[in-house]
Amino acid sequence: MIQLNGSDLTLQQMKGIIYDDEFVAINPDSMEKVRKSREAVERIVESGDTVYGINTGFGKFSDVRIKDKDVDELQLHLIRSHACGVGEAFPNVVSKAMIVLRMNALLKGFSGVRPCVVERLRDLANENIFPVIPSQGSLGASGDLAPLSHLALVLVGEGEVHYRGKIRSTKEVYHLLGYEPLTLKAKEGLALINGTQAMTAMGVINYLAAERLIDQIDWIAAMTLESLQGIIDAFHPAIHEARGYPEQMEVAERIRAITSDSKLITHQGEKRVQDAYSLRCIPQVHGASRQSLAYVKEKLEIEMNAATDNPLIFDDGKTIVSGGNFHGQPIALAMDFLKIAVAEIANISERRVERLVNPQLNDLPGFLSPDPGLQSGAMIMQYVAASLVSENKTLAHPASVDSIPSSANQEDHVSMGTIGARHAHQIIVNAQKVVSIEMICAMQALEYRGSSLASISVQNLFARGRKVVPTIIEDRAYSKDIEALATWLSRDQYDWTIQHKTISS
Questions:
Q1: Taking a C-beta distance cutoff of 8 angstroms, is the pair 64, 57 a contact?
Q2: Distance of CA 168 to the CA centre of its chain
Q3: Chunked mean pLDDT (size 10), the chain, 505 residues
């Protein structure tokens, strides 16, 4: 069980909650802060003071005073009118992450919601009730208004949820579980939708997938290096220490460790003096992407524990300030950085695929074909990899450099961070397929070389990979092989960070 307090939620804990179904609990001290913040809102309502989001309209309507009798109704109108997202729904893991992140933000005690709102979010997370949330429609400033409104609809008993493998009406699921819909009170609707939890939730999923991929690519590149009888001298520690990037040094050390007992690895001058950049510069390129991931991780873990709604309530209600913490620029930039980092992993992977299949660049059978000419072998797999990396280049265009004014120009600069996060996800999916193609080709090339000559670590990876994709003895439709290996890479529980010196059975 993971206890949330609004302050120290980590990516590792999020992984446990969304993928391993660890229960979430509420820190009692944090809930006390929620109660005090709510008391402050109720005092404002009783006093009749005009405060944005409590008894005013929203956006351009912020100067419109709402009658006291309509304050609660205002919140329901807000949720319903803003729930206009379009497109495919976010995956359930993103929906669950949004619930947990919104709950964690409210537990900071700056938002003025009642404890029952936080408790209902907890129940949704623990019961695996996933709101159906359209993925398109957020500008990433004023918060992820449209996506979070679809989440908030579920709290009031409206909208749809994914529950026990089926999409159902929220009303039906509440009836099954004996839940009563919440009636939102002053400020609660705004507190639920003014935030960056859609882009941050998608960012969490992206980071966890990219982190896994960045570990896997070193291993697969090592297999390619062995298959092409690559030169290990380029990974000498002195070279990388001379430059000074820790991540570059780490990648070089991993490649050296993985290939340490290989009989296929060569030294400069034995077969050639230098390898092409896609082999020789593995530490520099992979290492730079690792640097980017470290930046993304830092920003996500700050945002996961941030108060991002507006206004915020401080000093037991003595200070209520309207600001702009809902602006998603920090996550927008991080997601754009992540897009480029992962796209580059796919770019260099595709270049290694070309070196594996092109008979003008190696001494292997053309396109790794079992019968060159009659059979095309891996020829079109390289085409697919090239197509995917080209698609990634368009998706990698920074979303954060765009802005379109909204709400009658009151909200005149927005982040587009949720678009960046969605595009980052697609780049990662594409990259997983490119990396899978590299591994398929590297395994086939390794068979031609003699897999028993590879290092024990690479033999171990080869044995695991062959359980997913069998050897190519005759042309077949390879799309299922690519998809199967990409799925395996995205789900496998193998610890890619350590060395295994015995071959798996």
A1: yes
A2: 26
A3: 97 97 97 95 82 74 74 88 96 98 97 97 98 96 93 98 97 97 93 96 98 96 98 98 98 97 97 96 98 98 96 88 92 98 98 97 94 94 98 96 85 91 98 98 97 97 96 96 96 63 47
Give, in order, the Cα–Cα distances in Å from 47 to each of 4, 55, 110, 142: 33, 11, 19, 27
User: How many residues make up the chain in this entry?
Assistant: 505
Set 52, 174, 245, 295: catalytic member: 52
Q: Which of 227, 312, 306 is nearest to 266 (CA)?
A: 227
> Is there a contact between 130 and 163 (Cβ–Cβ < 8 Å)?
yes
Nearest CA among 94, 90, 99 for reference residue 4: 99
Give the position of tokens 């109720």: 42
Cis peptide before 311 (omega within 30 of 0): yes
DSSP-derived secondary structure for 359-412: TTSSSSPGGG-SSBTTB-TTHHHHHHHHHHHHHHHHHTS-GGG----BTTTTB-
Q: Where do the domains of the chain lie?
A: 2-195, 203-491
| HSE-CB of 41 using CA atoms within 13 angstroms | 27
Class of domain 2-195: mainly alpha
Topology of the domain covering 203-491? Fumarase C; Chain A, domain 2 (1.20.200)
Cβ atoms within 10 Å, residue 68: 12
Nearest C-alpha neighbor of 223 from the set 353, 344, 346, 341: 353
Taking the C-alpha atoms of residue 4 and residue 47, their distance in angstroms, rounded to an integer, is 33
428 Cβ contact list (under 8 Å, min separation 6): 206, 209, 210, 213, 342
Q: 10 in helix, strand or coil?
A: coil
Q: Which is nearest to 214 in space by CA: 289, 297, 303?
A: 289
Q: Tell me if 163 sits within 8 A of 128, measured CB to CB.
A: yes
Predicted TM-score (pTM) of this structure:
0.94
Structure tokens at 279: 């082999």
User: What phi, psi does 261 have (nearest 5°)?
Assistant: -110, 25
Handedness of CA 213, 214, 218, 219 (dihedral sign): negative
Structure tokens at 294: 């470290």
Is 52 catalytic? The answer is: yes
